[in-house]
Amino acid sequence: MKLFNTLRFKLIEGKRLKKYLLYAIGEIILVVIGILVAVTINNYNENKKAEKECVKIAKQIQQKLASDIAKIKETRQEISENLELYNLYLKKDKTEAERLTIVAQAPFLVTIGIQFLPVNLIVSSSLNKVASQNTTLANKLMEIEQDYIVVDKTLRPMEDIMKDELIKNINHIKENFSWYEKLVGNNGKFTVEEYKYFGSDDYKNRVVHMRFLYVNGYDSILEEVEQIYETHLEELNELLKDQ
Q1: Are 120 and 60 in contact (CB under 8 A)?
Q2: Are 179 and 111 in contact (CB under 8 A)?
Q3: CA 149 → CA 12, 157, 223, 224, 238, distances in Å?
Q4: String of b and e for 215-236 (b: at least 16 CB within 10 Å)?
Q5: In angstroms, rounded to a whole number, what is the distance separating the alpha carbons of residues 83 and 72?
Q6: What is the pTM of this model?
Q7: 202-232 confidence digits (pLDDT tens)
Q8: How many domains does the chain have?
Q9: What's the domain range around 40?
């Protein structure tokens, strides 16, 4: 009888242990599920937060693209106006009105009358926040950033070349002519004798060279950049139309 009771006690204890193990395993499963649910919710919230941040940055870049395109158009318009002056300067038979225009503008064609693009070619310092996102919008923003980097590496050296030419032209006048102050002072009151230099072959060659750099070089780059930015703006407008 005692042996029977002992066996029954062990059997009961075994059942209790089994139930306890099942209960413990169940508790563990519930904890794991709870953790997974919490992680999923947290990831969902973080993704939503990241998406909102991405949209916010995209709208900032959208505005920058629109602003930069407008500045490019303004700069190219000024280049076009300067081209008319270059061509007018080089024209052989001028009307009296054209001659008077060149008299006023000729001294500044290759010295200080040059317009460069007033654009900051850094897209956004916040783009690193979306670099890890593998979404269509995030990838487009990174593509835009890369194009801005390429434009910077292309446009700035061309501007440096033109600036060097401007400095050379100004230094040439400074070192060889006593009326240098009139040029940089922008009063334009040159005597007939002083003005002769602006009709010389030396000055003509400088005008031809600057026209080549300004129009065939710089403006050609700006035209391509304008097309690239407009394409990006159209694509970005499409991606943000429902945001």
Answers
A1: no
A2: no
A3: 76, 13, 17, 14, 23
A4: beebbeebeebbebbeebbebb
A5: 16
A6: 0.78
A7: 999 999 999 998 878 899 999 999 999 999 9
A8: 1
A9: 2-240
